Amino acid sequence: MKLKSSVCKFCKKIAKKLYLKGAKCHSPKCPVEVNFTKKLKKGIYTPESRESDRKISRFGLEMGEKRKLLLHYDLTNTTLFRIFVLSDRNTGLTSENIFRNLEMLLESVLVRSGLCLAFGEACQLISHGFVKVNGKRVDIRTFITNKDDIITFDRKLRMQGSPARWLEVTEDREGNVDKIQVMSFPLRMDYPITVDFQRVVDFYQRRY
Known about the structure:
Blueprint: H1 8-14, H2 31-42, H3 58-73, H4 77-89, H5 94-103, H6 106-112, H7 119-127, E1 131-133, E2 136-137, E3 150-153, E4 167-171, E5 177-182, H8 197-205
Antiparallel strand pairs: 1-2, 1-3, 3-5, 4-5
Helix pairs in contact: 3-8, 4-5, 5-8, 6-7
């Protein structure tokens, strides 16, 4: 999903972080935190009533959850629908398959590993041809990795954050990232945002 204007307004609208601005989202300057603190001091709402209590239709709730995924992963509607179709064909719960396939995207792995702080940064590395998967260059940001895949790089890169528990990052003597290995499938407990994947499934199943 191409973001043409300030992306911070999307997070402020739902009063939740979607982590669209990289390092800024992890700092006290994040507009969501600033806006929340100001309103909390004025007594407008408390942490328990942070979300709006207005009535939203079923369609509106489903669209809201789908929009979260489009924004967070910076995807188009076509790409997300393709991931739904793939997830629906796999065995198991479709909602869990969507979560797994989204997190196993190559750009998602780079972000969850702590190498990149934003999906735009990961997309730039991939599109410029600096990333290899199992020794083969991959320049498709929506490439889906598998368990035990090894990701290497054609340039020196340093870690910017902590890796998720399902990824193993190896560094060389100089502190540069040598490789990233997918040790297992992603865990919900490591997921940074709150999304009801079942509503996304319901949205597509009732329309396609």
